[in-house]
Amino acid sequence: MEDLSLHILDIVENSINAQAKRIEIKIKKNKEKDLLSLEIVDNGKGMDQKTIERALDPFFTTKKTRRFGLGLSLLAEAAKLANGSFSIESKPTKGTKVRAIFQSSHIDTKPLGDMAQTLVTLIIGHPEVDIIFSYRTNRSEYYLDTKEIKAQLNGLSINSPEVIRLIKKNIKEGLYNLRRRK
Amino acid sequence: MPKLKIEDLVKIKEKATRTTSLREGGPYKTKITVHMGTCGIAAGARKILDSLMKEIEERDTKDIFLTTSGCAGLCSREPMITVESTGKAPVKYIELTEEKIKEIFEKHIIGGNVVQAYALAVGSERAV
Fold it and tell me: Where are the domains of chain A?
């Protein structure tokens, strides 16, 4: 994966495969502590202890299409390379929380990449899932909740091209303003 | 933090209710599935979805249902899409690029002719 936004897309696809209907993607950047943290919390079917233990094994997958599963292990590796840490908390039927922390200034910390494209990709593929995205810095926050948007749309599909274009523009501008405010 | 403005949404609603949505908006002629597993994402599937979305927007086509799915089991041939046209057998396209998408859109999705050069045909599977 070239950047963090692609890792995020991949992990959220896992959540959706686990029947999650609500997924929170939280990014926090702490300048003083030199940390970038990423948290993905879903309300999917969760995992039992035995499955959690095997989740980081690249040769483990619950899928039937292939014999290995690299998504989580790739993100764990990316965090480890960037002097960070990685953890999974999960309970059957309750959902899963994946957390990766990176040292912001570390040369191996991947760039965030095109977060707007990741979010609209998820919305196009899974309009029925509610996605809450937030990016917080010490000074400011960008926040997007697709459930709020759907309520305003009054029956119009969130994945129609016009709405997608508007959402993408909003995310791009929001994250741009956040960077300028540092 | 900019919020999505309700006026903007109302404006596009006027326009968009007259058109068909990608997913639920009634009968569609073609369904395009972008395979968005770990393998697909790492190989560039997100860019493929973006170029399909651009084609749909630019051509203002109303009868296409664009969606994503997981890994199809042919990780080494990603990025891949599956094109399903009403009444025809589904076609899987492999090792895609934005240029190939343009061609597939023009010839197959609009024109109805399968682009055989990029399609996964019987006999083209590699042994594992």
Answer: 4-180
CA-CA-CA-CA torsion sign (A87, B71, A115, A110): positive
Domains, chain B, in order of start with CATH, read 21-118 (3.40.30.10)
**Which among A13, A15, A119, A122 is the top mutation candidate for probing chain B, defined by the most B β-carbons within 10 Å of its own β-carbon?**
A13
- Over residues B59-91, the pLDDT tens digits come to 988 889 999 998 888 889 999 999 998 888 899
CB proximity B41 to A under 8 Å: yes
A110 neighbors A83 (Cβ within 8 angstroms): no
- Among B51, B35, B26, which Cα is nearest to B83's? B35
Which residue matches tokens 């240029």? B99
Give the lowest-confidence range in A36-45, A127-136, B71-80: B71-80
Superfamily of segment(s) A4-180: Histidine kinase-like ATPase, C-terminal domain (3.30.565.10)
Residues of B in contact with A6 (CB under 8 A): 41-42, 46
Kindly give, in sequence order, each residue whose CB lies less than 8 Å from that of residue A169, ignoring residues fewer than 6 positions away.
none
Higher pLDDT, A82 or B73: A82
pLDDT digits (tens, 9 = 90+) for A119-129: 999 999 999 99
CB contact under 8 A, B1 and A159: no
Give the phi and the psi of residue A4 in degrees, each rounded to 5. Answer: -70, -30
